[in-house]
């Protein structure tokens, strides 16, 4: 079953970096996943996230307020 990945952020440089890291991992490792960029503050607030960027995998917040490494994203996607 494909993973559902959401990147919560308003478009700041950290948010863009996280999007690139996640996209690179999904492409490089052929992960079956859909990636959605969520920039609407009301939708971000639904996750009770106060610090962006945030990485949400299958509706679980996995990372907040920082850009993860590719290895970290891969490990999260493989759990």
Automatic annotation (TrEMBL):
Disulfide-bonded cysteines: 12-15
List where the protein spans the membrane: none
**A Pfam family that the UniProt record links to this protein:** Thioredoxin_3
The annotated active site, in chain numbering, is 12, 15
What InterPro entries does its record include? Thioredoxin-like_fold (IPR012336), Thioredoxin-like_sf (IPR036249), THIRX-like_proc (IPR005243)
Ranges for domain Thioredoxin-like fold: 4-77
Q: Which UniProt keywords apply?
A: Disulfide bond, Redox-active center
Q: Could you name the domain of life of the organism this protein comes from?
A: Bacteria
Query: What name has this protein been given in UniProt?
Result: Small redox-active disulfide protein 2
Give the organism, scientific name: Wenyingzhuangia marina
């Amino acid at each position: 079953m494909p993973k559902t990945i959401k990147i919560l952020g308003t478009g700041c440089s950290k948010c863009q970096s996280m999007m690139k890291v996640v996209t690179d991992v999904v492409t490089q490792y052929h992960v079956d996943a859909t990636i959605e960029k969520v920039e609407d503050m009301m939708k971000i607030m639904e996750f009770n996230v106060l610090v962006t960027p945030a990485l949400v995998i299958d509706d679980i917040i996995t990372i907040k307020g920082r850009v993860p490494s590719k290895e970290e994203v891969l490990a999260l996607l493989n759990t």
